[in-house]
Automatic annotation (TrEMBL):
It holds the Pfam family FAD_binding_2. This is FAD-dependent oxidoreductase 2 FAD-binding domain-containing protein. InterPro entries: FAD-dep_OxRdtase_2_FAD-bd (IPR003953), FAD-oxidoreductase_2 (IPR050315), FAD/NAD-bd_sf (IPR036188), Succ_DH/fumarate_Rdtase_cat_sf (IPR027477). Keywords: Flavoprotein, Oxidoreductase. It comes from the Eukaryota. It comes from Sporothrix curviconia. The keyword Secreted does not apply. Residues 8-301 form the FAD-dependent oxidoreductase 2 FAD-binding domain. The keyword Oxidoreductase applies. SUPFAM superfamilies: FAD/NAD(P)-binding domain, Succinate dehydrogenase/fumarate reductase flavoprotein, catalytic domain.
Length: 313
């Protein structure tokens, strides 16, 4: 069929997009085109500085095999898991999928991509140490993104296009090709003043919308409207999915990181640098008026509300 020769189109070059492109090539895709609207690839994933969670891995203390990743995650999810089926069951199954496959994710990055994940720390919401990072100076996000991208660029079937913004998803009803299957068959792309069309199966991997503080964030979480973020201030792209009939879920489930660095010379800047969770995992404490007020290794929900072992009145 003609459709078999079309490239797999991946939208977004963060960790999800890079892994999707890698997987497509490993599944014998004829070609993969990765589209990124920023001038450089990596998205917000390249800024990640604490590590990746996984269990039970060979880097952990093998004398105490980690069996609590699932239960820790259920506990951290809290009210986001409804009390009754079917949604209760569905969400637990998704968490099981995430935690049960975490070992293979760490092995893939370490063994196949060459990422150093030998240092393991206990961070927020965890009952044991399971957050993996490298022993060197390169933050894990930058190391993972750089190595994945390097491996992709060694494959002649891969093509990266930066400065390309997807402006529309194309459905089969909009396509003149007689052999197009039902569904999404391509994308409309703007690069500068040029508008082009690319045909093929589409994987949308553009991440969240925390940087869209006065747009999607203000719409779905008005209490967080205008909040500073480490993410780039770019509009969320979820409307493109909704325009073709996708159902958006959990848009109000926004997780706010409790710590960030503030430039004293530019305190009002909406773009902040992350004070990584790793700082608390390695012994950093949070003080208010000189007093410790929260358990730094509790969940982020607890940290933001000031609840936990060290709460003071």
């Amino acid at each position: 069929m003609a459709s078999e020769s079309r490239p797999v189109i991946v939208v977004g070059s963060g960790l999800a997009g890079l892994v999707a492109a890698t997987t497509a090539l490993r599944c014998n895709a004829k070609a993969v085109v990765l589209l990124e609207r920023a001038a450089k690839p990596g998205g917000n994933s390249i800024k990640a500085s604490s590590g990746i969670n996984g269990a039970p891995t060979r880097f952990q203390n093998q004398a105490h095999i980690d069996t609590t990743f699932f239960s820790d995650t259920i506990k951290s999810a809290g009210k986001r898991i409804p009390p009754s089926p079917p949604e209760h069951i569905r969400r637990k199954e998704l968490i099981k999928l995430l935690t049960n496959n975490s070992l293979s994710a760490v092995d893939f990055l370490s063994d196949d991509i060459g990422v150093d994940l030998s240092v393991v720390a206990q961070l927020g919401g965890h009952s044991v140490a399971r957050t993996h990072r490298g022993a060197g100076k390169t933050p894990p996000g930058a190391d993972i993104v750089t190595r994945l991208l390097r491996a992709l660029q060694d494959d002649s079937r891969f093509q990266l296009r930066t400065g390309c913004e997807v402006t529309r998803l194309l459905s089969s009803t909009q396509s003149p090709r007689f052999d197009d299957p039902p569904g999404i068959v391509g994308v409309e792309v703007r690069s500068g003043d040029e508008l082009t069309y690319l045909s093929g199966p589409v994987i949308f991997a553009t991440g969240g919308f925390a940087g869209d503080a006065d747009g999607l964030l203000a719409k779905y979480r008005p209490d967080l409207a205008g909040i500073p973020s480490t993410n780039e201030a770019r509009p969320g792209m979820h409307s493109l999915l909704a325009d073709v009939g996708a159902q958006l879920v959990d848009m109000d489930s926004v997780q706010v990181h409790p710590t960030g660095f503030v430039d004293p010379l530019s305190q009002a800047s909406p773009l902040k640098f992350l004070a990584a969770e790793m700082l608390r995992g390695e012994g950093g404490i949070l003080l208010h008026n000189g007093r410790r007020f929260v358990n730094e290794l509790g969940t982020r929900e607890q940290a933001l509300s000031g609840s936990g072992t060290y709460k003071y009145s």
